[in-house]
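Case study 2.
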Amino acid sequence: MSERPALRALAERAGILDGYHSALDRSWVATADATHEALLAAMGFDASWEAAAGRALAALEAERAAARLEPLQVVVAGRPEARRLALRGEDRAARVALTIEAEEGAGFDGEADVDAAGEVELPELGRGRYAITVRPSGPGGSLELRQQRYVVPAHCTTVEERLGEGVAFGIWTNLYSLRSDANWGFGNLGDLVALARRAGFEGAAFVGLNPLHALPPGAVCPYVPSSRLFRHPLYLDPEGIPELARCPEARRRIESDAFRARLARLRASERLDAGGVGKALDEILEPLHRAFAAGVCGEERARAFGRFRAEQGSALDEFATFGALADHFAAEGRGRDWRAWPEALRSPAAGGVRAFRDAHPAAVERHAWIQFELDRQLGEAAREAREAGLGLGLYTDLALGSDPGGSDAWAFPGLLLRGVRVGAPPDAFSREGQEWGFPPADPAALRRDGHRFWLRLLRAGFRHAGALRLDHAMSLNRLFWIPEGRPPAEGAYVRYPDDELLGLVALESRRHGAVVIGEDLGTVPEGFAEQLGERGILSSRVLLFERDGEAFRSADRYPRRCLVTANTHDLPPLAALVGEADLELRRRAGQLPDDASLEHARVERARERRALVERLRADGWLDADAPSEAELAAAVTAFLCATPAALVGLALDDLAGEREPVNLPGVPPERHASWTRRLRLSLDELWRSATARACLGAISERRRQLR
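Prediction:
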């Protein structure tokens, strides 16, 4: 039992859980006092000794007691609480002046009665955001009480609303990994159009993508971006930029022998060279932006850019300013990490930022223009997907966090914390636990901000999408925080306001008419899966995880309300199950520490393969005892299509017969370059391959959305 009761009480008040059940053996792992202290310090509380913790707790309780009106509420439309406003305090007036300002639509300005329970009945409010102001009548009537209220739908947009009562399939991929004669060694939005057209031809309902978030130059992992609000320039299709046809300087550069030779090397490279592609693209974007600024594409293009900047508001201005600052300091050799910049430039509100922006308007505009063009090209890809018959269109991915030295952390310093990192406790997947390299958002600061940051993330994710995947959806309920410099085993879970965050997911889902998939794999808090279901969010089911002991579950035991896939980006492709090349890779990378571990993994692989073949044979999808890669992939495709799942996602890696995993979780880049493996086949070659033909031929007709 802890001898620090004030510390424990403060930690509980701040949302730090007192422990968790180990995924290894279900034993209880208590949160240490040192961990409580470190996490509270990151939140801004001094709990280094008991008296300080007691004072911090007393201040929180006093603040709560003094609040006569809850400052933020998220309520479900049509339920009784949506019509009630609860006032606190003994001196409640019998009548109040009430003002309701609506983000959209009509508001209210008048008076209202306060009942004996201290509640005010509100008019019927439609879905959306409202600013409510209450001024009690009589003595002290000048005091204003304020609440920000979101009225949200009970459910997200459903698959049935988008696709009818049937079931469907789609293809998911890491877009950057695509090979084609058109891209520069990095799959781009032009390739996405080609993929969407082919997927529509095959009867798919969606094309699923990795996060397209903006990454630091040269970075490769799509799940640790600089910003989750904006997109990575390398996804631009250079040939699709309108200014290119009217910019002789850019054309001359592209058509030079030296540049063509660079592109040939980048296209032929086995591994992704993000730095090389980025340098080549920058050489073209510079003259293209000058051409844009000169108005070579006419007034309508300029007006569209103006509308985009106005729509995106301060968030785009700050992102573009950060990009220009990062370029400036990188050119000076001082790096792109804002934490090493002069103090006067370490946040948008810092004293030197406005002066820098005023001194470098073209540099700032260039970054905003790149985002404008990315948004235009992604919108075109979404339109092409719809015209190709994809009922859901594009299925995008919202990553869990952002790089601590990147744009989001610079732009939102009060929300993304310093001194802690997000990760996972030890489990069978990683016995040391995982540290994912980015900071968590402060749940209290999210609420003080009125969840505006969360709404921005959702709106960016839903933009041009018919479905959105929430990476590590359990983070809406709790997230594992690790004190900086300490191992994951010394971390703890922290609570988040899940009802509020999920309510806003439903609000934005309805606004955009898009389906939501929650990545709920791993250790899921008790009752959270039911919460997702109640909100109409699809669960994620993965064939390789769906077991009863060693046996794979039959197809009829999968639920309806899910997206089912054979694997994930953290797991081996299907072709790897036939061989052992990925196990040898894990040994070389040190994920398997010795030859004995490798031999054990080989035994486990043989057992897993045998169990999967037995399930596929028992269900009638496979005849061979020792299937080829193509036979196994086709049988798995048929099996997944036979499940009741609303959506089936087929990995383009599996259609291509890839054997190497795209990611080895927990392995540092100096031991293995995760996220750099490209498809070994071009898109044209892929569709003609034996494995792709076998898999596409195994898709049941009931899954195809053919026009």
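The chain has a mean pLDDT of 95.
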